[in-house]
């Protein structure tokens, strides 16, 4: 039987370096918390470099930190429940009424968490950046590209300066031509993907501004951001992009839209009147 990641850490403990033992000690003591932590936060907790955490994971023959969290979550599951179902999750035995209630509670929890995580000062800063921007590019990767598309759809009814690009190649093209007056609104749960970091470097090189909507304040991309809007649940490692995370980001989007409109209600109303008049021509 293949050993789980906890047993493997204990087996390899004597072969770890001093810094790697600090990581192992923390993980063994905070196994549940580590499933939801970012690589940056873990390195800070253990007082080691991010690269040390990556090397630690590879020493355990894992692809990286996310792979490590998956194995940690799998090791925490009781025998017979290796599908990744969390306590209170929807089960095959649940009738539709129970499913409806569980989904409702999950959505309510996501909204409540997003409200408490969002800082008023950062919202005001983001709204000011959007208001003064020459153009605003709404971006996201994976599931969060849907939120970026929704942001463009919502904001475009109040101002013509909002845009989005879905193709990664064209995203790079557009980012490389930004001016200092431009702003990028980027949605990323982890703030630690190659795509968001590459985009952040290009944005900084052009002198443009970055508004990052993410779960982790100390994510690698946060270091490039002019303001960080925190939101999102503690995703189960087996979820791979939850609806709760999308709901949280959509809540932030609605807050930003309201704040943006509040700064120029007359201009927003003129744009909405024009859009509304044009859209009526599409109705039967």
3D architecture notes:
The chain has helices at residues 5-12, 18-29, 31-34, 39-46, 50-59, 65-76, 96-117, 120-132, 144-155, 168-175, 194-206, 243-263, 265-280; strands spanning 136-140, 162-164, 183-187, 209-214, 227-230. It is an alpha/beta fold and 284 residues long. Strands 2-1-3-4-5 form a five-stranded parallel sheet, sandwiched between helices. It is globular. Mean pLDDT is 89; it is low at 80-87. The longest helix has 22 residues, at 96-117. Helix 7 (96-117) crosses helix 12 (243-263) and helix 9 (144-155) runs parallel beside helix 12 (243-263). 56% of the residues lie in helices and 8% in strands. 33% of the residues are buried.
Question: What's the SSE blueprint?
Answer:
Blueprint lengths: L4 H8 L5 H12 L1 H4 L4 H8 L3 H10 L5 H12 L19 H22 L2 H13 L3 E5 L3 H12 L6 E3 L3 H8 L7 E5 L6 H13 L2 E6 L12 E4 L12 H21 L1 H16 L4
Parallel strand pairs: 1-2, 1-3, 3-4, 4-5
Helix pairs in contact: 2-4, 4-5, 7-12, 8-12, 9-12, 10-11
Distance between the termini: 65 Å
Number of strands: 5
Shape: globular
State the order of secondary-structure elements, H for helix, E for strand.
Answer: HHHHHHHHEHEHEHEEHH
Please list the strands of the largest sheet in the order they lie side by side.
Answer: 2-1-3-4-5
Q: Summarize model confidence as the mean pLDDT.
A: 89
How much helical structure, as a percent, in the residues?
A: 55-70%
Largest sheet: 5 strands, parallel
What structural class is derived from the secondary structure elements? alpha/beta
**Radius of gyration, Cα only, in angstroms?**
22 Å
Low-confidence parts lasting 5 or more residues at pLDDT below 50? 80-87
Number of H- or I-type helical stretches: 13
Strand percentage, roughly?
5-15%
